[in-house]
């Protein structure tokens, strides 16, 4: 309240406000819709707003920003279970706004209440927002069906950043559709999507991925089927992909890396794999060694992976595979200390 009074009587500060383009008010639980309306009217040149954790706000606050701030390009907001109908109408308003320049939208901390109708209105067929969206972050959309996820690449062809967390209906087929339909995707994050398996990275017959099968046998089968797979469903052009983050994908097998590696090895800059139960750190590194060379990789993070890594193997082989590596994170990964000799490290 004191801030509003100060702005009202200080004409210099009013002029200063007109030049602000970024407002980060995360976690301000005392903010109300009236507060956001006041800010939106004063800060008409806003480009970026983050409303994460503002539990006192309703979807009306988002409509205020979209209405009074036509230059808004990045918006981070949170959906709540007690305002589902309001969110549906708000997303429809965002999708139909003609003058809005929104490029990046994050709808986080959801509660599995929004369905196909709301998402179709936001970025489906007929949406004015979808063709120009470049960044989309969605979480807790378990009620959104497979039909929408399969059509998403056709709705948003300009997407370069895609982040999907706890979206239970996203499957391996949708992942391949994303690779094929969104050639501009430079950053892809998948987290807690139980239907995503290594089949999404290349079309291997399911019989090859039987549980309990030895790694050597599976590798032979993968090599045997590789030519057939390439002829049936060749890997798309993934030269734009710079960042790949995979979190808590319980059914993901480490075989995905040799499959997608040839398509991304020259351009990938960051690879983060954490909490994927079947993807041990040792298997991931083995997959990188099989691909051969990642000259652009600068960040590698393997955390909460099963099995240990032989330190001498890591120290001698990884620098040859990733010569430009600047950051290596092995969180909650065991190291077996079989120290190499001076000659093994080549000085």
Protein architecture, described:
The chain has 347 residues and is an alpha/beta fold. It is 36% helix and 16% strand. The chain has helices spanning 2-9, 11-17, 33-42, 59-68, 84-96, 116-123, 146-155, 172-181, 215-232, 256-264, 281-291, 311-321; strands spanning 22-24, 48-50, 74-78, 104-108, 135-139, 161-165, 187-191, 243-247, 270-274, 299-303, 308-310, 327-329, 334-336. The strands form 2 sheets. Strands 1-2-3-4-5-6-7-8-9-10-12 form an 11-stranded parallel sheet, with no helix packed on it. Strands 11-13 form a two-stranded parallel sheet. Helix 11 (281-291) links the parallel strand 9 (270-274) and strand 10 (299-303). Helix 4 runs parallel beside helix 5 (84-96), helix 5 packs parallel to helix 6 and helix 7 runs parallel beside helix 8 (172-181). The relative contact order is 0.06.
Layout: helices, strands, pairs:
Blueprint: H1 2-9, H2 11-17, E1 22-24, H3 33-42, E2 48-50, H4 59-68, E3 74-78, H5 84-96, E4 104-108, H6 116-123, E5 135-139, H7 146-155, E6 161-165, H8 172-181, E7 187-191, H9 215-232, E8 243-247, H10 256-264, E9 270-274, H11 281-291, E10 299-303, E11 308-310, H12 311-321, E12 327-329, E13 334-336
Helix pairs in contact: 3-4, 4-5, 5-6, 7-8, 10-11
